[in-house]
TrEMBL record, chain A:
It is a multi-pass membrane protein. Pfam families: Cytochrom_C_asm. Keywords: Cytochrome c-type biogenesis, Membrane, Transmembrane, Transmembrane helix. It comes from the Bacteria. Signal peptide: none annotated. It is found in: Membrane. InterPro entries: Cyt_c_assembly, Cyt_c_biogenesis_CcsA, Cyt_c_biogenesis_CcsA/CcmC. GO terms for biological process: cytochrome complex assembly. The lineage of its organism: Bacteria, Bacillati, Bacillota, Bacilli, Bacillales. It comes from Peribacillus loiseleuriae. GO terms for cellular component: plasma membrane. This is Cytochrome C biogenesis protein.
Automatic annotation (TrEMBL), chain B:
It is found in: Membrane. One of its GO terms (biological process) is cytochrome complex assembly. Residues 66-521 form the ResB-like domain. PANTHER family: CYTOCHROME C BIOGENESIS PROTEIN CCS1, CHLOROPLASTIC. Keywords: Cytochrome c-type biogenesis, Membrane, Transmembrane, Transmembrane helix. It comes from the Bacteria. The chain crosses the membrane at residues 68-86, 125-147, 217-235, 468-490. This is Cytochrome C biogenesis protein.
Length: 392, 547
């Protein structure tokens, strides 16, 4: 069952990947550019997407059966589920607006998220007492669904910005757009580096002195560019670090971050050299048929759809469960606070839409910031800001 | 005297009205030349846009501004994120002093964080003031808008002024000589699309989802209720937050219940996932990787309630209420109180046993067992042997004068001073006994207290909680959800269709989701002879694609 589950996830990944290329074909064909009239490419693309979604749903169900609980209990499971709901939200929006161009951006982002998720421990782990509740299924799935629908606004925003930002001259806008592109490339870098060194089973142990002046051991799974405080390599034949960190910094995590940025940078420079254009400029021709007004509306609409779901899942259900499990419905745990921040941010977005001038491009940049907050809550809060939610 | 604005159509509007409530004529001179009408709040007379003289006007206008509201949200958002950089004081280990902890753990930035008071950010005066201001803004901004909006929507007439129609985002004119037939047809289709139709002078207003317009005000009301619930918490008697440490076999009064309830801990246990268990074998890989994974923390308890009223000093009688197994996610609930499993201690010492022994011959003269909660002062043994307990230190350490003291009343590290009375030493010999340590302060002894064993028990820590504000929070949350769904998932769409000589004018407005309105209109017009109206905001460059 576990093996079947893994294969289904793998299958869905491949299907999304092929689907992306078909969406690419759909928008190159002029007939498909306009809404209402779907061309053959678009029909195949959305078909593949739905098939991929069904496969991933299969992964989810089989894993649920195997473990006896909804697979949303650690970072791998949660992030995969988030990717799945992103695809589901895209399918929903696609059937409202029939825009293949959205798929060209939504599927790669879902792929990146699922690939990123797979870099974390994938074993089926049992539930600790705090997680043994039906609210695990209710709260986590609703919160992830809300976040996924909100993320569609980011996908639409990227589409908007790639089209609207003038690439003929350098500006702040082109620079920020490249920052977004680099973030995605760096995620690819992280996935490539992590899976490469995990494939060759790289392990290097370091003895080091932590901030309490105690000796401790770090197991590195990537060659150490950055070593721990007074680190001493204990595994023979492995790389010595270039620099050593002070004791209060987690050198192992810092090393992973540096590797991701470094590999991302190499990839990014390679792409720039190969195309002799900004990365966003490479995509620009693909979106020339996109109706900006419609994309703006999709972005706004997905926030309107996602905001109530997010509120329900990430705040209300979360509070009900926190009252049962942690004795209080609100305790200013980092994850709770960042859910509140996400909520406040989208509330601010909705109010800004009321005043003039906060539509179109400005609103697209806001949607990007919103997604950055969601990602921060998913990645940084789990891995760096320790709290009650650190289950990864 | 109340100021009013008279419209050409005869309707009397309140002072400050931008669009006539009845016919939609532009009344505000500054907006007469704009290409499109600003339909926000229906152009109604909002207090904040009309008066700005007295101090009350100024305060009202400040809090009713969306700009101020958004600024407050952004300030709260940034402030909240600052509070997550380092843990808040409540999450640092209870044994640590905050003034030391932050600097030790996070260096200079930690010290700064502490000095700025960010370790208690969410209860700081300035954070609470921001929340209070946001609450005020919610209340005032809602009242400022909802009252005139309600008036406008209620008073709107079917027949609208030409200028009102022309300046709508969706607008089109179709020449036709079959007005009546087209009209009847459109009415039928719109009705079937679940529009509410109003007719007047041969004109038509189709309206749908007006209640979506109240969504924002409903959800703001919910939020205000939540904030009120937060304030009620500070009232005495509404909120109890206590901790009860309870040893196995022990019965104690539950704190925060005024002595009304008592609880007995029958057993406390911790279970872990075991590879030997058949049902846990799915998790073998994870268990191998992580090591120990806890499956269950459980305290089996019995709840007792006091019978009748007792005078102070009188011994109370308790009757059993119920048995319950308190687990994480499964608190014991009774009479607004809830008891939660939050912490525990395994294998706390409960009894220690010693043999009275002759150091040379190793001959023993009986064993004493000391209850560490309730030790006796004298333990009689047979044949005239006895042991007197002179002092007991449950959690012993030496203070700065090298005198034995106890850190706490909890038997973490018990130590005893015994006086061993034997037939050959009737005055007794004094011995100081701690774990793996024996001192003879008054000179060499003949006898000693030889360690003979311990008995342990588990201790559970339960949080005692009463929160009478919960239902108010829940009510506020539920109202918020209703309001936010009402506002987000429904749209207020209006289509005006009017007959002019030889022409049919069609205008459309929605508060959001223009795509949906356009689709509604285009599906309505399908098969009729009416042309699809223009979206006057549509960029002209789109025309190229059509070719």
């Amino acid at each position: 069952m576990v093996e079947l589950s893994g294969n289904l996830l793998y299958a869905s990944f491949i299907l999304y990947l092929i689907g992306t290329f078909f969406f690419g074909g759909a928008i190159r064909d002029k007939k498909g550019a306009l809404e209402k009239k779907q061309n053959k490419w678009a029909v195949i693309a959305i078909g593949l997407t739905i098939l991929g979604f069904v496969a991933q749903l299969g992964y989810f169900i089989t894993r649920w059966v195997a473990s006896g609980h909804a697979p949303v209990s650690n970072l791998f499971e949660f992030t995969t589920f988030f990717g799945m709901m992103l695809v589901a939200a895209f399918i929903l929006i696609y059937f409202i607006y029939k825009t293949p161009a959205l798929g060209l951006f939504a599927l790669p982002i879902a792929l990146l998220i699922i690939a990123y998720a797979s870099m974390f421990p994938r074993e089926i782990s049992p539930l600790i007492p705090a997680l043994q509740s039906d609210w695990l299924h209710i709260h986590v799935t609703t919160a992830a669904t809300g976040q996924a629908v909100l993320s569609i606004s980011f996908v639409a925003a990227i589409l908007y910005l790639v089209k609207s930002v003038d690439q003929t001259r350098r500006s702040k806008k082109t620079a920020w757009l490249e920052v977004i592109m680099f973030a995605m490339v760096a995620t690819i870098g992280f996935v490539i580096i992590t899976s490469t060194f995990s494939a060759i089973d790289y392990k290097a142990n370091f003895k080091w002195v932590n901030k309490y002046d105690e000796e401790a051991v770090f197991e590195y799974h990537l060659p150490a560019l950055i070593g721990p405080h007074e680190g001493e390599l204990m595994t023979e034949g492995k790389m010595e670090p270039f620099v050593k960190m002070p004791a209060i910094i987690d050198a192992n995590k810092a090393n992973t971050v540096v590797w991701s940025l470094f590999s991302g940078l190499i990839l990014y420079v390679l792409i720039r050299l190969l195309f002799r254009k900004r990365v966003a400029a490479i995509f620009k021709p693909l979106v020339k048929n996109v109706n900006l007004d419609l994309v703006d509306e999709i972005s706004y609409r997905s926030i309107l759809i996602g905001f109530p779901i997010f509120t329900l899942g990430a705040l209300i259900f979360a509070m009900i469960w926190a009252q049962i499990a942690w004795t209080r419905f609100w305790g200013w745990d980092p994850k709770e606070v960042w859910a509140l921040i996400t909520w406040l941010f989208y509330a601010a977005f909705l109010h800004l839409r009321l005043s003039k001038g906060w539509q179109g491009e400005k609103s697209a940049w806001l949607a990007v910031v919103g997604f950055a907050i969601i990602m921060f809550n998913l990645i940084v809060v789990n891995l760096i800001l320790a709290g009650l939610h650190s289950y990864a | 005297m109340k100021e009013v604005v008279n419209c050409v159509c005869g309707h009397v509007n309140p002072h400050g009205t931008i669009l006539c409530e009845s016919c939609g004529r532009v009344l505000d001179e500054t907006q007469k030349d704009s290409k499109m009408i600003d339909m926000r709040y229906e152009g109604s007379a909002r207090r904040s846009q009309t008066y700005n003289k007295s101090i009350i006007d100024k305060i009202w206008n400040f809090f009713s501004s969306v700009k101020v509201g958004v600024s407050l949200i952004v300030i709260l958002l940034i402030a909240s994120s600052v509070g997550t950089i380092f843990p808040q004081e409540q999450y640092i280990p209870p044994t640590e002093l905050p003034e030391v902890f932050y600097e030790k753990e996070y260096g200079f930035s930690g010290k700064l964080y502490y000095l700025l008071g960010f370790h208690n950010l969410y209860s700081s005066w300035w954070y609470l003031i921001c929340i209070a201001m946001l609450g005020t803004s919610l209340l005032i901004a809602s009242i400022d808008r909802v009252v005139p909006l309600y008036r406008s929507l209620k008073k709107q007439k079917v027949s609208r002024h030409d200028g009102f129609l022309k300046k709508q985002r969706i607008f089109g004119i179709t020449k036709t000589d079959q007005q009546d037939i087209e009209f009847a047809e459109l009415k039928k289709i719109l009705e079937s699309r679940r529009y509410k139709i109003k007719e007047e002078n041969g004109n038509l207003l189709a309206e749908k989802g007006r209640f979506a317009r109240w969504g924002p005000y409903v959800n703001h009301a919910g939020l205000i209720i939540v904030l009120i619930a937060g304030m009620l918490r500070f009232l005495p008697g509404m909120y109890v937050d206590e901790v009860l440490w309870l040893r196995e076999g022990e019965t104690k009064g539950i704190p925060g219940t005024d002595g009304r309830y008592a609880l007995k801990n029958n057993q406390f246990k911790v279970e872990i996932y075991d590879k030997k268990n058949k049902e846990d074998q799915t998790f073998n890989a994870a268990i191998d990787k992580v090591g120990t994974i806890v499956k269950n923390y459980q305290a089996d308890v019995t709840l007792y309630e006091k019978e009748g009223n007792t005078l102070p000093g009188e011994e109370a009688k308790f009757k059993k209420v119920k048995d319950h197994s308190i687990k994480v996610n499964n608190p014991l609930k009774h009479d607004h109180y809830a008891l939660y499993q939050v912490d525990f201690k395994l294998d706390e010492l409960s009894e220690m046993s010693f043999n009275l022994m002759n150091k040379n011959t190793k001959e023993t003269f009986g064993m004493i067992t000391i209850s560490l909660d309730d030790p006796k002062t004298m333990y009689k043994l047979k044949d005239g042997y006895s042991v007197e307990l002179l002092s007991y230190f449950p959690d012993f350490e030496f203070d700065e004068n090298q005198e034995p003291v106890t850190k706490s009343p909890i038997p973490n590290n018990p130590a005893f001073i015994f006086n061993m009375k034997t037939p050959d030493k009737p005055e007794g010999e004094v011995s100081f006994v701690a774990i793996q340590q024996t001192l003879e302060p008054l000179g060499e002894n003949t006898y000693k207290m030889a360690f003979a064993g311990v008995d342990t028990r588990n201790v559970t820590a339960l949080t005692v909680r009463k929160d009478l504000t919960l239902w108010i929070f829940f009510l506020g949350g539920a109202i918020f959800m209703i309001g936010v769904i009402q506002g987000a998932y429904w749209n207020h769409r209006r289509i005006w269709i009017q007959r002019k000589d030889g022409e049919i004018w069609l205008a459309g407005h929605t508060n959001k989701n223009w795509h949906g309105l356009k689709r509604d209109i285009s599906m309505t017009l399908e098969g009729t002879n009416i042309d699809e109206p223009e979206d006057q905001l549509e960029p002209k460059n789109l025309g190229e694609l059509e070719k």
